[in-house]
Amino acid sequence: MKNLFSLLLLVISLLGHSQNNDFIISLEKMDFENAKKFSDEIASTAKTKWEFLKFKEDEKKLYCRFVYIDSSLPDALKESIKTGSEVCENCLYIDYSIVYDGENKDLQIKGTKKYRFREFSGKYLDVQPAWSAYFRNGVTAEAALSNYELREYQDKSIGISYKIFKEGDTWTLHNYSNLYNYFKTH
User: What is the pTM of this model?
Assistant: First the structure.
């Protein structure tokens, strides 16, 4: 009976791991609506109450950013930041790379524009809730601070690699994944 219970726990654990991987793989090639939705979800899990401010895209650098601002700031300051006349020190930046799925430059096929989640940075209590919700399910803020192994999520068989780390006073959740071989076979 004990062995059956242990086997059941292992199967449930593997199913959860697989479902988590499916979600994480989906972050590699999102359309604009799903990238915006994921960015909104990140912002909503944070301790700070964020509101969407703007979207910036640079096609030449194949880069884009969703910007959220602390909702407690005065409206006049929010407008100054939105127009670019003020630097935003109270913003959440969620960054994506732009990829063209199916692109073949030699055959002059442009491909379909997709967004690959890259990273976001902020205070620990703004970064950790997304980490716990999407990458290390259920890991508490205290546990991730005290155990370095809980600050990374990898599945080397697929090429998934995400980490949270601290530089100065800022925490970053970064996508180090390389799913090239995975997408060649799926």
Answer: 0.83
